[in-house]
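Re-run with default settings, no changes from the original entry. Doing this only to confirm the output is reproducible before filing.
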Amino acid sequence: MKRSADAVTADDLQTSVRLAVATMRQAPSERAWDTKAGALEWTCWETVEHLSDDLFAYAAQLGPQTPPMDGEVPFVWESRRPGGPANVIHADRKSGPAGLLQVLDACGGLLVAMVRSTPPDVRAHHVFGASDPEGFAAMGMVETLVHTRDVADGLNLVWEPPAELCSRVLARLFPDAPRDTDPWQTLLWATGRAELPGRPRLTSWRWQGTPR
């Protein structure tokens, strides 16, 4: 079956993660990782752990022989401090930023592999509705693209992902978003991080992960 030009692929996810890791490697110093990530209440280090955890958790949902349809695979999510993200994945701080980014790269690789190897008719639970491998790939891309922006803001780095990646994510998860505006700015708007001309900044949002 021929795939739509708007279809999100494992290659798209892999590209997103690799671009994110390459950008974060430009952090000015190890100390910078303890600054706040954009408008979040988490540090840049914690935000990358959260992103890694998202990618791992999406891979885990697709992993069982019979993926769960009524909840998440029951790992124990724990926060390292009050107000910090509750994760399964925590990077060894002694490994430094290089170790943290290796954790992100590894978790991204897990989801890429699961998306590639899982039949497209498989469904698994997500709080926004059961989704398919393409949907989990797109969710992983949203988390990667927008949280890298949060981290880039905290580290004072430039981050602007390719427009075609943003367009495919918008088509898959935000079908009601405008299609005649800049795709990256539209994705930031759709995730409550920016305004668009004539459209106020969103105070709440969610994607539509159910299969098309």
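The chain has a mean pLDDT of 96. The radius of gyration is 17 Å.
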